[in-house]
């Protein structure tokens, strides 16, 4: 079997991807020079169906990217390793593909995220530095100077589950299109060979209440010292924890741009925040009295009235420079990380280094987890579920630690010398 030493990307970013349902041949033309297999009708059909399937998820950038990653890997492996269209793959070959994803060859593994395509002479051309798989090191190791190596590549259990789920959806789509007769992914009976069953609930990753006290106090101190830069920081930190927001729900993208008018007062005088969340579903998040006070402070700094008016179009989080809403999730991560770092140093100065260590690896999403974990202790979990936008109560239940506390309390006095 032939291996492609440096596989090239097939599918561009959403903003550069024409509609494959109507413009497939425009997408195909430049790729035929780089990928000879596409001169064959069955490979062209492979690509066309894959593009149509992935493009159907254009309502969410993150979902589009996930589905593109899995399907594109399958096509590249099928074409250049098995030398077969993906439409012809059997159940045992899908299993081979999963094994391949676990241990891809080094020339298929990159050590940094790079753009898939580049602009050249007014055209989009594949980036030769791109690889289907990327090795990473932990956030803490990277901060300590360790760089990723291809030998560091590791496919997590969550990634394997995502591969099974997305490819099963893909072959379900192909069956609906009458392109295949059966779903080879669904025919794999022993997925446990690849995906371990979790015997217990995973620990929710969050920061402690002490760490949060330092983080928010640090944000307040920075806002006092440099309001032009850090009043926005303070509001972001409060919004991420106080309303359990995901980072994607704070920045503008092709689906929506959060505005001040998304804060809504109902007929009872209660305030809500309207969010466009995962799956393009709108939800209303209850706004606490303290969160409303944080909003008033932020608006006063921005020389706005204390509370938003109906349908106010002011950007919720403005860009650092220029006009309009912030569009970079990376910029929000950097803002939060800077706050974490400063809180870490303050805790160390106060002799609390061991308590501060988690802040070295904490991410933006930990603030959402922290807010939910705290609220579920005192609020009905049905209310927390609605505010968090969880699809099922089982997700919210992950944040309830009562069972673990009671279990550990009953086991704390177990003797190593039974009488």
From TrEMBL:
Protein name: Tyrosine recombinase XerC
Major localization class: cytoplasm
Gene3D superfamilies for the chain: 1.10.150.130, Intergrase catalytic core
Keywords: DNA integration, DNA recombination, DNA-binding
Residues covered by region (Disordered): 382-419
Source species: Marinomonas aquimarina
Biased composition (Basic and acidic residues): 398-409
GO cellular component terms, semicolon-separated: cytoplasm
Every Tyr recombinase domain range: 205-413
Compositional bias (Basic residues): 410-419
Top-rank lineage group of the source organism: Bacteria
Compartments, as annotated in UniProt: Cytoplasm
UniProt GO BP: DNA integration; DNA recombination
Classification via PANTHER family: PHAGE INTEGRASE-RELATED, TYROSINE RECOMBINASE XERC
Signal peptide as annotated in the record: none
GO terms, molecular function: DNA binding
